[in-house]
Amino acid sequence: MAILKVIEVLADSTKSWEDATKSAVSKAGKSVKNIRSAYVQTQSVVIKSNKVTAFRVNVKITFEIK
């Protein structure tokens, strides 16, 4: 039986939601090992002068505790 833990990570990118998600997983991977999955819970954008300037994601990352 595996024991799994879920953490919530917020990340943003000026390129895309996909890039923001990759950034969240990459940053979490620096301190958390054995990442199993990532679930994008919410997506949003930052708007300045009627233009999208950043993409934001709230990601739930699941990893195994050994």
Topology:
Elements: E1 3-13, H1 17-29, E2 35-48, E3 51-65
Antiparallel strand pairs: 1-3, 2-3
CATH topology: Dodecin subunit-like
Strand proportion, as a percent range, falls in: over 45%
Number of helices: 1
Q: Uncertain segments of ≥5 residues (pLDDT<50)?
A: none
Biggest β-sheet: strands ordered side by side in the sheet: 1-3-2
Q: Going by CATH, what is the homologous superfamily?
A: Flavin-binding protein dodecin
Q: First CA to last CA: what distance?
A: 11 Å
Percent helix among the residues? 10-25%
CATH architecture field: 2-Layer Sandwich
In total, the number of strands is 3
Structural features, described:
The chain has 66 residues and is an alpha+beta fold. It has a single domain (3-65), classed as Dodecin subunit-like, CATH 3.30.1660.10. It is built from 1 helix and 3 strands, in the order βαββ. The chain has one helix at residues 17-29, and strands spanning 3-13, 35-48, 51-65. The chain has a 3-stranded antiparallel sheet, covered by helices on one side. The longest helix is centred in the middle third of the chain and has 13 residues, at 17-29. The radius of gyration is 14 Å and the shape is elongated.
Notable characteristics:
1 helix, 66 residues, single chain, 3 strands, alpha+beta, Dodecin subunit-like
Q: What's this model, at a glance?
A:
The chain is an alpha+beta fold.
